[in-house]
Design a protein that fits this description.
- Helices cover about 40% and strands about 15% of the residues.
- It is α/β, with parallel strands linked by helices and about 550 residues long.
- Strand 13, helix 15 and strand 14 form a beta-alpha-beta unit.
- It is globular.
- The two termini are about 45 Å apart.
- It binds thiamine diphosphate and magnesium ion.
- This is 2-hydroxyacyl-CoA lyase 1.
């Protein structure tokens, strides 16, 4: 540590406390425990003071990734993570993370240091409790607090500071009783019901009550990408393998913390029946009735409202008949889809395809691990094969479809796991393009010695790429800027060297055997991070879809 840093750590005159220290203490009082960022003038002192008061500080390589990480901490812990940035360019880099947090409805506080302030704006510390409250109450999201430079270095009398008490956990709201009764009656009369579980349900910790509802009423359910794991993926009532069929023919859909946005094809035909009855459960009133006119709206906390629904079914028990035609249709479709995936996974030809890769990854995936994923085909196909058994254990490109979130999310998950579940692993499954967005965060991973297993599923491009020979052939016809398709990336790139450059383990794999072996070694190593660069067929795609629109509007 340099002398100037040491000086910054001391608190100046006796009885005096620095603005930076007050900021840090105010955050700690609000039960904020993690800060990600990149320091500079005037925020370095805030980072130092944060460490002094017991907030973990994780220095990242780009504010964008820092912001992604801080928002993931908010999702995983329910208390906002802080992203610390310098004003101007630092804040601008952080905007991507703030937008992503807002779209995902994840709490986040961004703190930027700005230039000197005029005296009349003193007393701004009241903004902390406000920022914490508005980041976690109602629909969670991002908050920005701007700290004037002279405030950071100000010395004030310790006795003049009064920290506002930690704000209370968000109040729990419940739905109108008459609406709950109506919802129960719509469910009872359903011919082809479906429950859709979104990440709002995961964030609300509603897993226990939703599982009860699904099991007690014997309802089929479908998770959204980050709703995976609220009920384990291998639960007999999970119909994810027949997703399109389930959406298309359901007559009553209970939406638990999931929005009718592009991920759920807006709730509209042809992906749904035109007269499907939606029972929409959401914490945000503005969300109700978006795109469709729901049969019933239940405004409130997902967990509390699910319990309200359960009360109705406790009073007058009801089960959806397991031998119904609907269940038969869904089970048959699941069987045929699973058989198709298995067939693709068992293909012996090289280079490997996506299914083969994910089949082998799934075989070795620890059941309790975090799965972080981004990419197009990599993320979409990976999601169908890689299983989640626990809630809040999948982090991906999310509602905003943002590429570049993966490494920040993985770092956040690894840091949270370190404190709460030592030994729990983080597997980060990246497309080669997706990896490039925040690739330098590998240095962060190595600096903090986070035993993350990074998989780069490498097809030399965005969706698709070229093999080395075709690439060379193509360049005979002109410069890459004129002849290379915009989706292509440099073939045969050794992304594993990014990891070895910083002392982690790197693997370059081309066969299932090499993949199995490198996975075994990476997972057995509980101290070092590793990156497995998995070469796949550059033209490999998803399995043929029943409907052409299935592949539309997906990122
Ligand atoms: C910030 C951002 N920029 C660009 C995109 C557009 N985009 C969608 S997926 C993707 C990358 C897909 O390629 P890769 O990660 O290699 O996965 P693959 O489909 O090849 O498996 C890109 C650039 C995006 N979603 N987000
Ligand atoms: Mg790719």
């Amino acid at each position: 540590m340099s002398e100037s840093n040491l000086a910054a750590r001391s608190d100046g005159l006796e009885g005096q406390v620095s603005g930076a220290r007050v900021i840090a203490q105010a955050l700690k009082t609000q039960d904020v425990n993690y800060m990600f960022g990149i320091v500079g003038i005037p925020v370095t002192e805030i980072a130092l003071a944060a460490q002094e008061v017991g907030i973990r500080y994780i220095g990242m390589r780009n504010e964008q990734a820092a912001c992604y990480a801080a928002s993931a901490v908010g999702y995983l812990t329910g208390r906002p993570g802080v992203c610390l940035v310098v004003s101007g360019p630092g804040l601008i880099h952080g905007l991507g993370g703030m937008a992503n947090a807002n779209m995902n409805c994840w709490p986040l506080i961004v703190i930027g240091g700005s230039s000197e302030r005029s005296q009349e704006t003193m007393g701004a510390f009241q903004e902390f409790p406000q920022a914490v409250r508005s980041s976690i109450y109602g629909r969670p999201g991002a908050c920005y607090v701007d700290i004037p430079a002279d405030f950071v270095n100000l010395q004030v009398n310790v006795n003049s500071i009064k920290y506002v008490e930690c704000c209370m956990p968000p109040p729990v709201s419940m739905a109108e009783t008459s609406a709950v009764r109506m919802a129960a009656s719509v469910i009872r009369n359903a011919k082809q019901p479906l429950v859709i579980i979104g990440k709002g349900a995961a964030y609300a910790h509603a897993e226990e009550s939703i599982r009860k509802l699904v099991e007690q009423c014997k309802l089929p359910f479908l998770p959204t990408p980050m709703g995976k794991g609220v009920i384990r993926d291998n639960h007999p009532n999970c119909v994810a393998a027949a997703r399109s069929r389930a959406l298309q023919f359901a007559d009553v859909i209970v939406l638990l913390g999931a929005r009718l946005n592009w991920i759920l094809h807006f709730g509209l035909p042809p992906r749904y029946q035109p007269d499907v009855k939606f029972i929409q459960v959401d914490i945000c009133a503005e969300e109700l009735g978006n795109n469709v006119r729901p049969a019933v709206t239940l405004l409130g906390d997902i967990n509390a409202v699910t319990k309200q629904l359960l009360e109705q079914f406790d009073k007058t028990p009801w089960q959806y008949p397991p031998e119904s035609e609907w269940w038969k249709v869904l089970r048959e479709k699941m069987k045929s889809n699973e058989a198709l995936s298995k067939e693709l996974a068992s293909k012996k030809s090289l280079p490997m395809n996506y299914y083969t890769v994910f089949y082998h990854v799934q075989e070795q995936l620890p059941r309790d691990c975090f799965v972080v994923s981004e990419g197009a085909n990599t993320m979409d196909i990976g999601r169908t094969v890689l299983q989640n058994y626990l809630p809040r254990h999948r982090l991906d490109a999310g509602t905003f479809g943002t590429m570049g979130v993966g490494l920040g999310f993985a770092i956040a998950a690894a840091i949270v796991a370190k404190d709460r579940n030592p030994g729990k692993r983080v597997i980060c499954v990246e497309g080669d393009s997706a990896f490039g967005f925040s690739g330098m965060e590998v240095e962060t991973i190595c600096r903090y010695n986070l035993p993350i297993v990074l998989l780069v599923v490498n097809n030399n491009g965005i969706y698709q790429g070229f093999d080395t020979d075709s690439w060379k052939e193509m360049l005979k016809f002109g410069d890459a800027t004129t002849v290379a398709p915009p989706m292509s990336l440099l073939p045969h790139s050794h992304y594993e060297h990014v990891m070895t450059a910083f002392g982690g383990k790197g693997y370059f794999v081309q066969t299932p055997e090499e993949l199995q072996k490198s996975l075994r070694q990476s997972l057995a190593d509980t101290t070092n991070p590793s990156l497995i660069n998995i070469m796949i067929e550059p033209q490999a795609t998803r399995k043929a879809q029943d409907f052409h629109w299935l592949t539309q509007s997906n990122l």
